[in-house]
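Budget justification aside, the reviewers requested a transparent look at the raw inputs and outputs of the sequence design task funded under Objective 1. We therefore reproduce one unedited record. The lines immediately below are the structure tokens for a 255-residue chain.
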């Protein structure tokens, strides 16, 4: 057994089986849902920091686009101006990425636990103080076999992925401003985000259709908690749209 298994995978596996034992119904689906919620609660500060960083970058995007346009022929001055803007606004451009990197080993361990946790052969990884159930009931609500792919769970995961991604989508500028200088970059970003809004759910459906139902159920639970957290964070830190450029007053006719 390697360090990764000892430090992350084995504790999560024991937590999953412990939840399976203590929750009523001997239903592995309830254990998966409970473990997902517990992990998301532990990672809540990191995920929240990532979302706030992403929100801050969205707020700065119009100013960053203006710097890129004005200094498009001077990359060195462009980079300097952008760093000065980050310092002035107290925004770390890596703040939305670093928390995700910290979470990555935890998510890999959980993937392996849910991939292998439904097999009785892996019960030898249990700690002495965790009750060994002997066998594991892989049925969720007596309807879905979590050891096999489930199209029902794959569709649910894809639908929730669409909802979650749509919450992150940058809106296109109003039609009245779309022809103005500075709106083109925002319009392009909105188009890219719109494309991702539909591509991510399709990928989720295809991948979820091939994975064991336990993993897809985890995906469903993660999306549900993520949607709730995004709603809380985005409501607290809304993106304020930039004010439209002021119109110049008409020049008076020369006397």
């Amino acid at each position: 057994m390697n360090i990764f298994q000892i430090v992350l995978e084995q504790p999560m596996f024991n937590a999953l089986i412990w939840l399976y034992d203590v929750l009523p119904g001997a239903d592995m689906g309830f254990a998966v849902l409970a473990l997902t919620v517990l992990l998301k609660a532990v990672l809540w500060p990191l995920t929240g920091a990532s979302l706030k960083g992403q929100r801050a970058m969205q707020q700065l995007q119009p100013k960053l686009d203006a710097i890129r346009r004005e200094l498009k022929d001077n990359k060195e001055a462009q980079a300097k101006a952008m760093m000065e803007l980050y310092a002035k606004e107290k925004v770390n451009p890596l703040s939305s990425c670093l928390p995700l990197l910290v979470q990555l080993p935890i998510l890999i361990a959980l993937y392996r636990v849910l991939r292998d946790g439904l097999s009785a052969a892996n019960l030898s990884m249990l700690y002495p103080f965790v009750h060994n159930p002997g066998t594991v009931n892989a049925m969720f609500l007596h309807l879905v076999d979590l050891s096999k792919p489930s199209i029902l769970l794959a569709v649910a995961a894809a639908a929730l992925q669409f909802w979650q991604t749509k919450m992150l989508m940058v809106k296109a500028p109003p039609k009245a401003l779309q022809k103005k200088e500075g709106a083109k970059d925002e319009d392009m970003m909105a188009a890219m985000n719109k494309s991702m809004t539909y591509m991510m759910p399709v990928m989720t459906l295809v991948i979820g259709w091939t994975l064991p139902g336990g993993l897809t159920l985890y995906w469903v639970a993660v999306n549900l908690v993520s949607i709730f957290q995004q709603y809380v964070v985005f409501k607290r830190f809304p993106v304020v749209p930039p004010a439209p450029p002021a119109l110049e007053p008409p020049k008076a006719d020369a006397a």
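DSSP finds eight helices and two strands in the chain. The two ends are 91 Å apart (CA to CA). Computational costs for records of this kind are itemized in the attached budget.
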